[in-house]
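Memo to structure team: turn this sequence into structure tokens by end of day. - J.P.
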Amino acid sequence: MVCARGAAKRRRISTVEPALTILANIDVLGHLATFLEAGELCQVRATCKTLGSSDESTFDGLSMTEEAARRMFESASDEEKAKMRCFDDEGWIELCHHLLMLRTPLTFDQLGHVEYQAGDKAAVQGRGFGAAICGNHIMRAGKHWATFISGGLGSFVGVIRPLPGWGVDARIHLPFIPGDHEDLRRERTSRWEGDVHFCILVLHNGKCRYSNFDRNPEISMKWSNWEGDNKYNSGINILGTLLDLDNGTLSVYQNGQRLGILKDGLAGQYCWITCFVKNSASIKIERGYVAIDA
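Reply from structure team:
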């Protein structure tokens, strides 16, 4: 029986070793990396020393997995690279994660008192006061378009800082409620540049609200006049938005026409967000701008 177990173990090892030998080829691994998410690449890196170690590396101190991620990032288009600001404290695998997110449809990944519509992660329905964030789709540089398709009254759309811990605990901290801003400030990082941490368009009246999450609730949430206020039509339920991080502006479009800059002074990183104050409200998001009335 012992001999049989030993033989079975040797067979397993002999099966695994050739597979790792094939995988431990940078060209093969680079091709495989195009089909994997960042978390899966991290799992590959942890599979064995050959793939995950940077000791005695031939890739300028990078492990084979990190080198595969670097090559994938370097092969991105000029348009994609213009949206990919690189920070000193992140590695190639994290950069590849953001690159891959640019290539996928927008989805609401963090929910607070809202629910998906028919299982569609791009469409959410309000359940009273709540919000939904495209938390996996962080905008870092360049120009980013999104289309919001609204249903019912009582919703807002706009941008917010990345909040990776938001929605994890039982209590959801809502960004349009000044009393919750102290909790939101705890997630601040060095990538929160400037003082516009949250900016939304109120869909039923076309007003702009923004916040720097100030410690004083009396001044934390502000109203702002914007140049397209008098041209905004609340009867049109398709809204185009353009976040231009090169110029620090968030602009609004309807019927294919630019209404104006909703807010300037935006800097750092943002995610798309929608907020609700009524059960009847719903929002669907799409990447790009669909300038067709619905």
